Amino acid sequence: MNGTDTPTTKTDATVMIPTTVWDHIITKVEDICPIYQWSDKFDLKGNFVIPVDNDEGNLAVDWAEEFDELVSGNVRLASIELKGYLAGVLAKISKSLINNTDFDIVGFVEAKIARKIAKFIEKQLLYGTEGKATGLSTIAADMTVETAAATAITADELIDLQDKVPDEYQGNARFVMHRSTRNSIRKLKDREGDYMLNRDFTTKWGYTLLGKEVYTSKQMKEIAAGNVVIYYGDFSGLATKTVEAGRIQPLYEKFATQHALGLVAYIEFDAKIADKEKIAQLKMKAA
């Protein structure tokens, strides 16, 4: 997440830019990126392991009689390890634009950095990066619906996607897709001839599909051969770790010879699937 932004605002940076508490940033990240907000969040420092029930072993409940011994079984647990992968963002502000106007540069830069961090986190949640946070990229084959066509989605395939998630996890389930994908399925009808995607002003994002909210993200891939284009499920099945020890730090000296002021922020982050039954994906057929 390395990059440089140049705000077109002016103020006295030496007075207006203190070290900013990370809590303000992470709150904005949650507001901007609901997938992060829905995830199972951890803020522990260092690497740590989460046990995952892989439904193996021979533990069983059976009828019993008084004074008879129960037959013991065993439980086998898998695990995932959440680490602290480091990412950073750098903003450089021209001092020629700093000195003549009374503008809340702190709030502006906070919002700018928070949005950059939110987009970065959301992209990692959705598709991950090999060797870093893997996010939803490791969804298993048995939780994947592949379309029959490389560039079109059918109503039956959406129904199959929803049914991949067990009933016990349907209560908090949602659809996540690109806006263009949502547009492409607006004319789809079910077997009874009813539109599957409905305008619903009682929901936060204004649409429901098969009775569930639809959230659109520009970070999602659009419909094309081989792309994963829709996620569906309860996103608490995704475990995320964000170390809340970051700061927006002003760099007064680093760019002094450029007549500029720097602002830098770092974040330690990881994301992995912790409950594979909670989230399913729709993948377009390969060309």
Distance between the termini: 32 Å
Structural class comes to alpha+beta
Strand order of the largest sheet: 6-15-11-7-10-9-8
Radius of gyration: 23 Å
Number of helices: 6
- Secondary structure: helix percent: 10-25%
Verbal overview:
With 287 residues, the protein is an alpha+beta fold. Helices cover 20% and strands 30% of the residues. The longest helix has 23 residues, at 105-127.
What is the topological layout?
Blueprint: H1 13-16, E1 20-21, H2 22-32, H3 34-38, E2 40-42, E3 48-57, E4 75-82, E5 85-94, H4 105-127, E6 144-146, H5 155-163, E7 174-177, H6 179-184, E8 197-199, E9 207-209, E10 212-216, E11 228-233, E12 238-243, E13 247-251, E14 260-273, E15 279-283
Parallel strand pairs: 2-12, 6-15, 7-10
Antiparallel strand pairs: 1-13, 3-4, 5-14, 7-11, 8-9, 9-10, 11-15, 12-14, 13-14
Features:
287 residues; six-stranded mixed sheet
Question: Would you summarize the structure shown here?
Answer:
This protein is an alpha+beta fold and 287 residues long.
